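Take a look at the protein record below and tell me what you see:
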Amino acid sequence: MGLNSKIKSLIFAGCSIMSIGALAGFASSRQNEKICEKVSIIIDNEYNNYFIGDKEVRDLLTREGERKLEGLYNQDIDLKNLEKRIEANKFVKDAEVYRGLDGNVHVKVKQTRPIARIIRTDQQDVYIDAEGNILPLSDRYTARVIPITKSALIKSSDKGFFQDSIGQSYLSLLQFIENDQFWKAQIAQMHIDGRGEVSFLPQVGEHTIEFGKPVRVDQKFKKLMIFYKEVLPVMGWEKYKRVNIEYEDQIICE
């Protein structure tokens, strides 16, 4: 390619970039001049959670109705700030606020998913989510999750018991139960004693399941499943009051 051809190519490329930039600037300017006439809200209820509804989201967007978005020019609407405002709500895991081609505002909200409820005698109960975050109770909705009681000897750190180095293993245990349809339906309650050992009360049967420390979780539940499939159908669901699966390679029944 000759020198003149290279120069022509560079000039053409430069002109193309300038043209694209000008068109983008023009389009952006036209968008900013549009007025928001409608706010559309979609709330993801993948896990059938109803902690936050359309009204609550609108209140967050408008600061309890003080600053409505309808009627504002696009340039006067800070989408990132609106996202942060919604995500500040503890029941919101993620929020996306964006502008459509028509200038209207669209909001998508993904709710947090509680996996357990901590029963507390000295103060109000709380939920924990799949990451171990503490969530308050809601006047709007009560989640059907496993309740947990724990000894007063089990102290929480500033991060919360289920987010410190010790509590992570208990959180992993809860995640295992949450992700298994059978155990999620069968486990009625969980208790953590002063030594950090776990026991369960089942939905069906009169026995207490002594699980021990939250280690070898998969192996222990496999042993318990064998007990449910091979022992209880023969001996009867009311036969035993205590089932211990704490130790390797054995099940203790009384």
